[in-house]
């Protein structure tokens, strides 16, 4: 028979049994779905700002490798904050990359161009507590870059920032323009949203960079050490007889070399020569600087590549060597040759002084 019991319970029993089958009708409230969004969910645009980093000395790239040379955070303006409440559009971070200023990509993520070819950077959209991920290489459709189903605390009431990772890629070929700052190319990085971006309450934000988003000071191309190959400062020309120089005869060639080392970001070396005293009809020889017991009628010609003269005090005469391997050191070979300058030959001592000025690009 049926008996009344407390609400929510139905018991069935008989007079001849002591066993009762009771069915308890009860229910628990279902957990409400949660969705997250940027700010109000209406979308908009924001710009990366206030990125800074210490001075960088660009290293020599390693063949076949890319390596990170800087990492720092930037703020977003206007500010973006996560907001989570009841809804069905999820808690994942979605993004789509703009192709406008993208580079070749790195480690399956998008990379973006700077003002120096071969130096690119990646951008990670994340909260100040670290949740987030980088822009991926998808440029056609939105995709999830950070799965967060059930973890709304990663976003809710958290402020977002952008972390920059700067990489020197194997295509880097120096800084020939002698740029003093590394800056991003201005443009649109891409779009990102919390929750499905197609929903009207989860609209994406566009993320932009300007040339002022970050400005990293650079050490210009240079070599710290420049010296004669033997470590000294003199090139010994040896002894000569007047007969060696008469009748237009030239004398022996004296090879010497100049070494530069501890070079950074140098792809081109340009050498010029100056002197306080010249001789010869074209003032193209190094003259004797001695005043006592001085030899006359001779001067020193400086040659490079065995046959090309480097003329002193001549702005148009220079020895240029390009080396796209961006060497850390380099040796330059010269020849010193004693020649007649057109004046009468007089026996004596001879000393000439030259200054070799090298510029780097």
From TrEMBL:
Pfam families associated with the record: Fimbrial (PF00419)
Record-annotated Fimbrial-type adhesion domain positions: 218-361
Highest rank taxon of the organism: Bacteria
Main location: other
UniProt-listed GO biological process terms: cell adhesion involved in single-species biofilm formation
Family: Belongs to the fimbrial protein family.
Cellular component, GO annotation: pilus
Signal peptide annotation: 1-32
Subcellular location field: Fimbrium
Chain segments annotated as coiled-coil in the UniProt record: none
Organism of provenance: Klebsiella oxytoca
Keyword annotations of the record: Fimbrium, Signal
UniProt-recorded name of the protein: Fimbrial protein
């Amino acid at each position: 028979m049926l008996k009344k019991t407390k609400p929510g319970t139905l018991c069935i029993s008989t007079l001849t049994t002591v066993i009762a089958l009771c069915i308890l009708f009860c229910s628990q409230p279902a957990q409400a779905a949660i969705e997250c969004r940027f700010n109000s969910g209406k979308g908009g645009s924001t710009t990366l700002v206030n990125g800074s980093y210490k001075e960088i000395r660009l290293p020599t790239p390693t063949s076949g490798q890319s390596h990170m040379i800087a990492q720092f955070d930037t703020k977003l303006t206007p500010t973006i904050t996560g907001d989570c409440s009841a809804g069905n559009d999820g808690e994942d971070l979605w993004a789509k990359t703009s192709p406008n200023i993208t580079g070749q990509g790195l480690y399956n993520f998008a990379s973006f161009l700077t003002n120096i070819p071969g130096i690119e950077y990646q951008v990670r959209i994340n909260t100040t507590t670290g949740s987030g991920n980088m822009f991926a290489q998808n440029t056609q459709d939105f995709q999830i870059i950070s799965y967060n189903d059930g973890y709304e605390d990663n976003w809710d009431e958290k402020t977002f920032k952008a972390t920059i990772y700067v990489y020197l890629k194997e295509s880097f070929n120096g800084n020939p323009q002698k740029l003093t700052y590394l800056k991003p190319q201005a443009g649109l990085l891409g779009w990102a949203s919390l929750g499905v971006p197609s929903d009207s309450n989860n609209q994406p934000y566009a993320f932009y960079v300007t040339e002022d988003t970050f400005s990293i000071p650079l050490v210009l191309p240079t070599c710290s050490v420049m010296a004669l190959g033997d470590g000294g400062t003199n090139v010994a020309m040896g002894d000569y007889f007047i007969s060696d120089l008469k009748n237009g005869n030239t004398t022996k060639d004296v090879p010497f070399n100049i070494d530069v080392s501890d070079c950074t970001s140098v792809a081109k070396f340009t050498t010029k020569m100056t002197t306080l005293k010249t001789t010869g009809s074209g003032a193209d020889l190094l003259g004797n600087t001695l005043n006592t017991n001085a030899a006359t009628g001779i001067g020193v010609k400086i040659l490079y590549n065995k046959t090309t003269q480097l003329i002193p005090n001549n702005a148009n005469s220079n020895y240029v060597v390009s080396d796209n391997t961006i060497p850390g050191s380099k040796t330059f070979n010269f020849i010193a040759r004693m020649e007649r300058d057109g004046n009468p030959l007089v026996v004596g001592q001879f000393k000439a002084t030259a200054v070799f000025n090298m510029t780097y690009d």
